[in-house]
Amino acid sequence: MTTVPHTENSEHHSTLETIRQQRIDQLSHWEREVGVTPYPYRFEKTHSNIELQTQFCDLADGVETEIVVRVAGRVMAIRNTGMFMDCHDPSGKIQLFSHKESLDEACLPLLKLFDLGDIVGAEGTVRRTPRGELSVRVKKVELLSKSLLPLPEKYHGLTDVEIRYRQRYLDLIMNPDTRDTLVKRSKIVSSVRDFLIARDFLEVETPILQHQAGGASAKPFHTHHNALDMDMVLRIAPELYLKRLVVGGLSEKVFELNRNFRNEGISPRHNPEFTMMEVYQAYADYTDMMTLTEELFAHVAQTVLGTTQVAYGDTVLDFTPPWPRRTMAEMVFEATGVDFMAITNDEEARTQGAALGVHVRDFDGWGHVLEQVFEEKVEQTLIQPIHITDYPVEISPLAKVHRSNPRLTERFETRVNGWEVANAFSELNNPLDQRQRFEAQIAERDAGNDEAHHLDEDYITALEYGLPPTGGLGVGIDRLVMLLTNSTNIRDVIAFPTLKPR
RNA sequence: GCGAGUUUAGCUCAGUCGGUAGAGCAAUCCCCUUUUAAGGGAUGGGUCCAGAGUUCGAGUCUCUGAACUCGCACCA
Fold it and tell me: Three-state secondary structure along A327-339?
């Protein structure tokens, strides 16, 4: 839609192409008649726009200073044939006031040549207009980069969501909210990292290209290494590699901010590549991970937003620790009246699940049914932060059996706004048990569950050398950013979300 | 993958019953030197998402396809 068409043989130029050609033709004018290049190399900038606005916030209306500054940015509005230009940089706006009596004569012809979208640099003195607009009284102005293509309309801006995603640079130029969200994302990631490093966690990197996808239940993307003539997959989780590092004693506390790839559906809450943060802490269990989760979220919200009471849609999410901790079975019992802990065989579980109107597959055992009932009957009601604990063994092949009930594991998922935002366990470190769990996964795969885990022999070998008791936690960073930026679509928190080609 | 919706100028959007394609902003030219969605005047700009069909005639009706949006399914 916004692709620039070729010019040859087109008698009827589109508006876009006409404008582009006019501006290309104009480039030689800049060099011939104005004597400047439209794409110079450097500009010495003394202030960002926010620095000027802050430094001169007390300057009274109508006051002229003698203070010389040099500013630069994109022209977003032109009034009175260039006498007034709004110059935007990432920090904000400053008005350039180029009066013919104070502008260098050599610069005067430039005013008629500037277009909306051009990047300009200006030198002049700071003043505030009688109507209160902080401005630079321009003495010299120069073109720093010529914009050949017209910007979207100034008042309504760019609202077409498809163009906003496909041409994010245009979205960023036109929509301050987009910039705010992505800047907040960066600050959130930084504060996650700062929080963990301050607690002596070591940041590490593990393979994205793997031979076998492990650490989660998901379909991977497949790729191929040419020189080795070897099929590979992109990771669906870094979990098994991070625990190998704990086995090796690289550190008792490790974390990775990791991009994962899952070959599944796209939705407002799912992007095929997404960012997670996983941490592992030796000698800790899942209760320690609950506390860590609460402290992490509270720290991030406080750092980025200045509060742990976060407005999201029509509600306020309260991240102030501590958060409720409830078992999955008791939440299901409260919602449905069915006590799954009293159900002792798979067939009865399937019968009860079906009776509740829940989708049940033939190979689903007690644990799968309990989880399914939870997801269909309970999950969407959990708005405020809550830890759902004690997941069934059969759906938690990497989590340690619960110390007080062999059907359950020491695992929790944190729910906020109905979404899973964290998943954590007391990590299974018994290699004999781990082998049996993998074998149960293989049986599930044979029974038709194509997202069951594979057996990873080297991972079991690592466990056989001894993994200390360890707590592990994964946090969905994209969803965390959504919650803290009041975003309803994951694409709004990812600069370049996955799209089909046009 | 399924269902519903959207797609018209660079952008934001109108387009009635099937009868010559519209506005604002942006662009070009002119006027205007204290504006801030600057203002006034004039001008240019269209593969109506693509393809097929019905019709004397299709932006409009039918079918097929595409991209996007929302929902469902899928989703440790």
Answer: EHHHHHHHHHCCC
A43 and A107, same domain (yes or no): yes
Domain count, chain A: 2
Antiparallel, parallel or unpaired: β A134-145 and A64-79: unpaired
Helix or strand run (H / E) with residue A268: none
CA of A37 to C1' of B26 (A): 25
Determine the distance between A2 (CA) and B59 (C1') in angstroms.
21
Q: Which A residues between 462 and 491 have a beta carbon under 7 A from any strand B atom? A: 474, 476, 488-489, 491
CATH of the domain at A14: 2.40.50.140
Cβ–Cβ under 8 Å, residues A462 and A280: no
Q: Where are the alpha helices (DSSP H) in A160-252?
A: 161-166, 168-174, 176-198, 239-248
Bridge-based pairing state of the strands A202-203 and A253-261? parallel
**Three-state DSSP string of A131-150:** CCCEEEEEEEEEEEECCCCC
A23 lies in which domain range? 10-151
Does A157 reside within a domain?
no
Q: What does the DSSP 8-state code read for residue A54? A: H
Name the band, by pLDDT with cuts 50, 70 and 90, for residue A361.
Answer: confident
Q: Is residue A345 part of a domain?
A: no
Does the pLDDT at position A11 exceed 90?
no
Q: Indicate whether A294 and A389 sit together in one domain.
A: yes
User: What percent of chain A shows pLDDT beyond 70?
Assistant: 97
Asked if residue A128 and residue A247 are part of one domain, the reply reads: no
Taking the stretch 24-43 of protein chain A, residues with Cβ within 7 Å of any atom in nucleic acid chain B are: none
Q: Is the pLDDT of residue A210 over 70?
A: yes
Instruction: Give the pair of three-digit tokens for residue A161.
Output: 């969501």
Reported as a pLDDT band with limits 50, 70 and 90, residue A5 is: very low
Residue A249 included in any domain = yes
**Rounded mean pLDDT of A122-146?**
96
Looking at residue A242, its amino acid is L
Q: Which of residues 66-105 of A touch strand B (CB under 7 A)?
A: 77-81, 83-84, 86, 95, 97, 99-100
